[in-house]
UniProtKB/TrEMBL annotation:
Domain of life: Bacteria
Annotated protein name in UniProt: MFS transporter
Subcellular location(s) of the protein: Cell membrane
Keywords: Cell membrane, Membrane, Transmembrane, Transmembrane helix, Transport
Signal sequence extent: none
Species per Swiss-Prot/TrEMBL record: Streptomyces coeruleofuscus
Main location: membrane
């Protein structure tokens, strides 16, 4: 591989930080639109389309389990895509992941139903979901590495937050698309209406390619490749030099359980016979919460550039444990005003503190030569557990699926490892980019020369 040499400590060309952040935002939005329309469909549509309608509770459980399958595939995707991302560069992985996600999601919209092909239908559904998981495994890590390594000094938190605000934008778009779909007459919804959001994903491949193909490789990666060469086996170096940080990222990534419980389980619970809230109203809760998150994420990230990653992350992790309990309680009452208010507070405001900061917080734990592998592998193992949190929640909720307090306590317990991980991590918001992951460095805003 040929990588142009870059002088030590060289900054990104003018305009590249903003261009990288924009590419990360739009790409992540399009990618996670695909990923989250599956979550809405798994909660509202797939139990009737792909599973046995004679046992609704089991059908819902199996449908939610397919949502978690993608998270199980993500660690495998992280190993492969992290390896190539640290060898070939961030840009190539960013383009590949969008193309794969667009294709796999479009295919889901083309699948035959259980009535048409029997048990082959859920098998094909799971295979497509695995491809979605592999794609998502490389998307955030490559976009985070791209934006972090392009970011100017003192603003890494702000620029890397665009990846996660893009994720929330994709979730918002997925919800808005599903609102009119869910309002369709039942026969049209189950026959063809549910397929439309998946077919729209063909735009992902086109738009993603146009946006990302002209993006420059990061100065940090080019410099490292020119001076030291790329690492032949990033995983070996990662586990030898950064094993403790990988464990921290795995523990920290469990905070994503808040997102999956909010997005999938709470939606299924609220619209079940136990509560009886309308599909459209609950989809609007998610839409408004994500709209607030779009503003909250960069604000929290900017705050972390000033006071540090750890305090902001801890607000999000600890606060989510409390506010998720309040949100699920509100849903259990059937009160729309309470549900809207506490849903926005929980997911839109408090969870955004951890969600907006982790791209910089995790990425700053690693050196450039293994950053993409470290973030990808650490987050995707943690996200795998978070994905199956929905399945466990369905079990914990009992036969009637209405024990919301048990699910709230379960979610709170999953917020404890992220708190411990943050408390044990170094504060890195003032460490120069070229010194990240090398050794503990005295806080400074001036670049330090680090020997290779």
């Amino acid at each position: 591989m040929s990588v142009p040499a870059t002088p030590r400590g060289a900054a990104a060309p003018p305009g590249q930080p903003r261009k990288a952040a924009t590419a990360a935002w739009i790409g992540s939005a399009l990618e996670y639109y695909d990923f989250f329309i599956y979550g809405s469909a798994a909660a509202l549509i797939f139990p009737e389309v792909f599973f046995d309608e004679s046992d609704p509770a089991t059908a819902t459980l199996l449908s939610l389990a397919t949502f978690g399958v993608a998270y199980a595939a993500r660690p495998v995707g992280a190993l492969v895509l992290g390896h190539f991302g640290d060898k070939l560069g961030r840009k190539k992985i960013m383009v590949f992941t969008l193309m794969l996600m667009g294709l796999s999601t479009f295919l889901i919209g083309c699948l035959p139903t259980r009535d048409q092909v029997g048990t082959l239908a859920p098998v094909l559904l799971v295979l497509c979901r695995v491809l979605q998981g592999i794609s998502a495994a490389g998307e955030q890590a490559s976009a985070n590495s791209m934006t972090l390594e392009h970011a100017p000094p003192g603003r890494r938190g702000f620029f890397t937050s665009f990846t996660l605000s893009g994720t929330q934008g994709g979730q918002l778009l997925a919800t808005l698309v599903f609102i009119p779909v869910a309002a369709m007459p039942e026969d049209q919804l189950l026959s063809w209406g549910w397929r439309v959001p998946f077919w729209l994903s063909v735009a992902v491949a086109v738009v993603g390619y146009v946006i990302r193909r002209k993006l420059d490789e990061t100065p940090a990666f080019a410099q490292q490749a020119a001076e030291q060469g790329v690492v032949k086996m990033p995983l070996v170096v990662l586990l030898r030099e950064h094993w403790a940080d990988v464990l921290r990222v795995i523990a920290g990534a469990l905070i994503a359980s808040v997102s999956t419980i909010f997005t999938v389980w709470a939606l299924a619970y609220a619209t079940s016979d136990a509560v009886g809230m309308s599909r459209t109203a609950m989809l609007w809760v998610g839409a408004l919460a994500n709209l607030v998150a779009l503003a909250a994420i960069p604000l929290w990230a900017t705050l972390s550039d000033r006071i540090g990653r750890r305090p902001v992350y801890l607000i999000g992790a600890a606060g989510s444990a409390v506010t998720m309990f309040l949100y699920l309680w509100a849903v259990s009452t059937g009160s729309y005003p309470l549900t809207f208010a506490l849903g926005i507070l929980c997911f839109g405001v408090v969870y955004s503190a951890a969600n907006g900061v982790w791209p910089a917080f995790y990425g700053e734990m690693f050196t450039t030569r293994v950053r993409l592998s470290g973030v990808a592998i650490g987050t995707q193992i943690g996200f795998a557990a978070a994905g199956f949190a929905v399945t466990f929640a369905a079990r914990i909720a009992g036969p009637g699926g209405d024990d919301w307090s048990a699910v709230a306590l379960f979610t709170a317990a999953l917020c404890v490892p992220p708190v411990i991980a943050a408390l044990s991590a170094r504060e890195t918001h003032r460490v120069p980019t070229e010194a990240l992951g090398v050794r503990p460095v005295r806080a400074t805003t001036e670049p330090e020369k680090v020997t290779a």
